[in-house]
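Quick question, first post here. What does this chain look like in 3D?
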Amino acid sequence: MRALSKAARTYLIALWAVALLLASLSLPLFWRETISLNQVLPALFFVIMLTIADLTASVNQRGRTVSIALAILIAGLTALNWPLFLIVVVLGTICAAIARDIPWWQAISLLAMRLVALTVGGSLVLINWRFAQQNGATLPYTTLPDLLGLVATGALIYAIERFIETGLIYFRDDGTLRRPGAATSKTCAGMSFLLTPLGGLLATLWQINGWAFALGIVPAVVVQLSLRDQTELAVRNAENQRLAAESANTNARLEQYNQILIALIVQRDLSKMLETLCEKLANMLGAANGWVVLTDQNQAPATVASYNLPIPPGSPGPHLVPWPQKYESMLSRQNVSLVTDTRLQTLAPTRALAEGQFWEALIFIPLVDEQRVLGALCLTFAEMRGLNESERRLLTIFARQAATVIDNARLLREVQESQNELIQSSKLAAVGTFAAGIAHEFNNLLAGMLGYAQLGLAVPDTETKNESLKVVVDTCKRGKSITGSLLTFARRRESHRELADLYEAVQGTLTLMELDIRKFNITIERSIKPVPLTVCDAGQISQVFLNLLTNARDAMNDGGTLLVSLDNDEHEIVLSVRDTGCGIPDTIRDKIFEPFVTTKGALGGSETPGTGLGLSVSYGIVKSHNGKFEVDSLPGQGTTMTVRLPIVTESEVPQLPTPELENGEIAGLRLLLVDDDEAVGTSLRSLLMQAGHSVTFVGDGASALQQYRSTTYDIVLSDMSMPGMNGIDLLQALRVHDDSARVIIFTGQAMEEQVKSAYAAGASTVLRKPVEVEEMLNAIKVAWLQRSSVHS
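> Answer (accepted):
Ran it through. Tokens below.
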């Protein structure tokens, strides 16, 4: 009895008590004659018939047993003496149960149910048959009242069996009542009403003679086979419907998974991709929270993304998990798992979440790509839930696809980082290449400036002094151009595009390389024309041009001619570098833009330094600008490399509105000049005073702030880089004290980030050192007009 619950055992005991009571009460009522040996043989025949009926029975989709046992029992009611009939029921049921090897509690339940139903329903059959015999009837069920009574008996037996069975199911399932569908109930009732007349027919044939009864067995067998076929068909139909519903549900799930994968693929940022994965899958499965754990290069698991955590992590991450060994153990299995035990908290993504109970269930989804474990996705649920095999299988397939997408995104990020490193390494190599040219160029500039400055000091002639100073000024402008090109080229930052003049970039780069190129007995021919401004990264384009110059120089070890041309048509800027060198070998012509393909250095079997990265990096830069590379080369005659860039006129850098300059000069302004270089500050102060302004000069930002607070000034001119309080800090402090303060910033670096920070802090304009006096005066005029327009 341990196989049943306590309530079911109690119900079964009560059922047997009722069955025994009814059987005992029925014996004195229906036992009319002594049992003879002639009656034993038919009883054994009915035992065999009942056993065969039970053994050939079938079970429908609702678990109901369908057989002709009811017809055999109806026939036995009129054919056998009542005690023998009860014995037939007991023996036939037990023999079939033993042969089918069903659980004992099911066997005794079926036997008790039959005894109760047949004792109550069978009494109607016996009473009706004896009443008919008293009226002279020799055959049962040959009148209309007899047939109606038989049908009523079948209905009563069916009702009693269903009632008893429903009670057993109710108590066995701990109070959960499973109601059969309407179609199933109609089918079972129809079969009962079909079998009851069949039993009456068999009873009538038995009363005629044994051979007539044998003929009745044939339709009984046909009915049994028909019932079995119908039951199997119904079961198969139900199974097909279940499979169709499961298939539709699976297809819907797959469509949802595909939509999540599409959302992941369109994401280029890995962190956003993981957040999208976590959020969408959690919403799809009804999870309250979720997080993604990935392993790093040392196979240490760390939380890299999360969704709706009860205690959010303090920073974006990654965060090392509190118990990495637990993750390692789960990941080693590579199976989708449902966790509902104490391991829940050990899989928490952070220490704060591991210290409390926030979930009742957790689905652990390993992210496995080609047998390599990337990490896991964890989804948590506030209520207990299950995980069937179909859902586990779909999650496993989805996780493998998601792992592939994640791995590709990680590889793409590594490639991008490697590409940035290659570009920077190429820049550094290029800086080393023309370092001598830079030194030589600046030595020439300094020599010219020194010579003309000494000349101006030595001669008393004013005209000669002015001419000497003009040469010094022009030389300074040339030095400013060179340093500007160098800063543009060598700065390390993400690619940022703005309106730029490629004419200046090409001229500056060629100037830096000119001395080094001429060392190789190479004649440089220029055809460099001014071109329209275009949106580009001037530093990267300078790097491309420098790589082309370097390759052309290395291709002409014995000297030659280098032609550099810059021109444009209506839509494109065309930069061309042509050399008269050795040309490109046919064997590598189609591969020159691939990394590490070179004829120089150890990779190319040459003593000329080279890594094979220059053209590869250059090709990537040009393609990122939507440009094209054209190569024309003949071995032994030279190579022409042409770069075509589209002219783009819309700048990515917002243009600051500036007021129109009025005619005439503005003088008499009170200016505060701040620079830590006394020579620069003194000279600029003198120039501004000559222009008619009143100038106060201080050497640091703190003193300037104190001076501004004590005295009123119209405009402040400040250097960007100063010890202590730099120019931007001073600007911010001045705007706190006076929100209408106008500040002009000048710097010798002019890095993009610094310029943006200065404008964001409220700078009127940013100038690059060395600053010409006219440039400074125009900036002062703009700042003054801006302040005047605000006050007006």
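The CA atoms of residues 50 and 92 lie 5 Å apart.
The radius of gyration is 50 Å.
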